[in-house]
Structure formats: C-alpha cells, structure tokens
Amino acid sequence: MKKISLILLFLCIGCSYQERVHTIIEEDENLLIGINYPNTPYNNLNNIIKMEVDNIYKDFKKKYDFSSTTIEKSELNIDYKKTEFEDYINIALDIHISSITLTKPIHYVKTYFFYKEKQTLTNIKELIDEESIIAIKKSLVKQNINIHYLDNYINQIQFFIEKDQSHFYLNINNELIEFVYDNNNIKFLKPITFKEEIQKVDIFYISNQTLDIHKKYVAITFDDGPSIYTKNILETLKKHNVNATFFVLGNKVETYQDLLKRSLNDGNVIGNHSYNHKWLIKLNKEEIKEQVNKTNEEIQKYTGYIPTLLRPTYGSVNQTLKNIPNMDIVLWTVDTMDWKYKSVSKIVSRATSCLKDGDIILMHDIYKRTANALEKIIAEIKKQGFEIVTVLELKEIQKLRKYEQINSS
Ligand code: ZN
User: Fold this and answer.
1) Per-residue pLDDT tens for 371-406?
2) CA–CA separation, 93 vs 53, rounded Å?
3) How far is the CA of 312 from the centre of ligand 1 (A)?
4) What is the distance in A from the centroid of ligand 1 to the CA of 383?
5) What CA–CA distances, in Å, run from 236 to 239, 259, 368, 373, 392?
6) Largest Cα–Cα distance in the chain?
7) Half-sphere exposure (CA, 13 Å, Cβ side) for 401?
8) Is the pLDDT of residue 274 over 80?
9) How much distance in Å is there from the Cα of 27 to the middle of ligand 1?
10) How would you write the chain as a 3-class SS string?
11) What residues act catalytically?
12) Cα(52) to centroid(ligand 1), Å
C-alpha cells in the first residue's frame, strides 16, 4: 500500500514538472541557435523528436562553426506546429539553416503523426486512402517533379493536418515543396476529431507601484519563456512584492496561457520577443512584421493584453524594427549571461555587482538556475537601495523626471 502511494506521488511530481516546450537559445561568436520543440505526454514521440533535433543541432555545429574565419554568423532556427486530435497528435518541425557558405538557406519540414493509444507513428498510407494519395502525387507532378521519381518518395511525404486543410511537404535536395489541400478533398481512412480550443479573457496591465522620481530604480527582464521555471519565478516575485518584464515567444503563448494570465494579474509586464526566435534583422520587412504581429495576436488572444514592448532577438535592431507602429524597442544594460554561466552565485554577481539607476537586467526564464538565483538577486538589489520595477514603470519614471526638469527650469 505504502509503496503504491509513493510511486503515484512520484509520477504526479513528474507530470507537473514536465516542460511543455523545450527551448535552446545560444549566441556564439559564429553561431546563432534558436530552437523550440514540443514535449508531449508521450515519451516515444518525445524521444523521436529529441533525437531528430539533437542530430540537426550537432550537425549544424559541426558544419557551420568556422571559428572566427568569417564575420557573418550562421543561424539555425527550429520551430514547430502542433495539432491535437482525440486519438492523434500531429507535430511539424520547421528547420531553417542560413550561412554565408550556402548559396541558398536550407529550409525543410519533418512531421510526425502519432497514434496516442498504440504509441506509434502513423504513415501516410495508413491515414489517407490510395486515391487521395494519387491526387496528392499529381499535384506534385504539376510542380515539375517526375512521377517515377516520386514513387520512391511517397514514404517521405511529410504531412500536417489542420482543421480545414492539410499540408503536404517534400524535401528534395534542400528544397522544400509544399502543397495545401482542402480536407474535403481528402478521404481519411481513420476518423480524426479535433480537440476543443480554449477561449480568451481580458486582462490589462496595472502598475502596483507609487513612483517617486527621487528614488533609484532598476528593471528585471526575462527572455525566451515562458517555461516550467516561470511559475517559480512568478512565486518569488510575488513573495517579495516586486514585478518583472517578460519578453515571450509567440509560439509558447498558447501552451503557457495560464502562466501569462497569472503573470499579468500579479502586475508583471508581458513583452514581445518574436514568434520563434528567428534572427529578425536577417528577415525581410514582411517577415519581421509577421514575427511581431503574430506574437502580439497570440498574447492578445489568450490574455486580452496587447504588448507595447519589443525585445528583438539577439539584441539586433534595424530600421524596420524601429518603425513598427506602437512598439517600443527595449534592450538591456546588464547581461547576466545566465544561458552560459551554470552557477547561481555567478548569475547573482553578474546581475548585481555594478548596478546603477535605470539599469535593465537581462535574464532568461528557461533555466532552473535563473529561477534559483532570483531570490538572492532581489535581496541584493534591495540591499543596494534600488526599487525594482517593470520596464513600463521605468519609462514612466523617465517621463516624470523630464517633466520635473522642464517645470523647474
Ligand atoms: Zn532571446
């Protein structure tokens, strides 16, 4: 009896602490890496995806690290889409690699259609009837692919099923061919029922602070989240009655909508950190706008809050970013480098050792060590006589001071 309850307890702790999105962000001298991939309740599926991502990551590091021989950085970005059905879960990994050594950036898609009950992957022939597959093949032929050639590729067709339409992908010689089909034109061999969506609520940002222009202020900011460690961070902030600013990734908003609502309710600020951590200044105008707008839309859809702060990925800014309407760019003045330094004491000292009024501290709420360092960081900042505020409050103080200056002169 005792044994069983112990095992159950262990299992429950296991589930509640399971990360739902894995994030790897690295900024090297030569390499920029931004990876987001899902962690589902299904271990078999997780292992398959993790292995794929690990291979891509290692391969990228091996092939594109030219250690200071070039000025231009190489970039790896992995993002994903997910559709959840009653019986299945469908994941598509979207892989982008760009490098000065490539004539054209590499872009390809890997998809997984997972049968929950049997814990196995389903291939296209098991899911879609022969006739529909022939029609899909024909659309590919229209895109100048030889049908005989295609027969060898049939098992390599990647597919992602959405509510009304399905996407089929073929990766041939580093080239991605995509064709979209209306679901009405496809005969599915198995019934696919979608899981219900969750509706939105309205929350607005209200400052908890009475601002006094004669005090000293700093802002703590977190990038790349939310993650499972965000909950811990929110608890620490609340315990010490301080607020922070979280620059989140759009593709994590749906998954962590509860944490975001709670964060806003506590008086924290949510900002925009792009949709999937692409190196924004390398994108064209339209793509940059899409990264920013899509993230704002996700945040508004699930929390009701519309962000006004934008932190560009890797801190790189260009004119397009500066010109985005209603968005203020926020960089940082203190870099904890918590993605690199593994020790709590190092993170605490980097965050607090040379603070001055108006500083913005950069951290990442995707590391346990960062969550663990926060308590000491807050204590040390307060000990040095600073007030901790959000970036919006910091901007408000700057305005108040300017106003005071004009009035007194
Ligand atoms: Zn980042």
Assistant:
1) 999 999 999 999 999 999 999 999 988 888 887 777
2) 9
3) 8
4) 29
5) 5, 14, 13, 10, 20
6) 82
7) 15
8) yes
9) 9
10) CHHHHHHHHHHHHHHHCCCCEEEEEEECCCEEEEEEEECCCCHHHHHHHHHHHHHHHHHHHHHHCCCCCCCCCEEEEEEEEEEEECCEEEEEEEEEEECCCCCCCEEEEEEEEEECCCCEECCHHHHECHHHHHHHHHHHHHCCCCHHHHHCCHHHCEEEECCCEEEEEEEECCEEEEEEEEHHHCCECCCCCECCCCCCCCCCCCCCCCCCCCCEEEEEEEECCCCHHHHHHHHHHHHCCCCCEEEECHHHCCCCHHHHHHHHHCCCEEEECCCCCCCHHHCCHHHHHHHHHHHHHHHHHHHCCCCCEECCHHHCCCHHHHCCCCCEECCCCEECCCCCCCCHHHHHHHHHCCCCCCCEEEEECCCHHHHHHHHHHHHHHHHCCEEEECHHHHHHHHHHHHHHHHHHC
11) 223, 364
12) 22
Q: How many Å lie between the centroid of ligand 1 and the Cα of residue 36?
A: 11
Bridge-based pairing of strands 245-248 and 106-115 is unpaired
Pairing of β 216-223 and β 245-248:
parallel
Per-residue tokens: 74: 């190489």
Query: Given the DSSP bridges, would you call strands 386-389 and 21-27 parallel, antiparallel or unpaired?
Result: unpaired
Comparing 173 with 1, the larger pLDDT belongs to 173
Determine the distance separating the centroid of ligand 1 and the alpha carbon of 227, expressed in angstroms: 13
Average pLDDT over residues 52-74: 85
Burial class of residue 64, CB neighbours in 10 A (0-12, 13-18, 19+): buried
Residue 21 vs residues 10, 95, 225, 321: alpha-carbon distances, Å: 21, 16, 9, 27
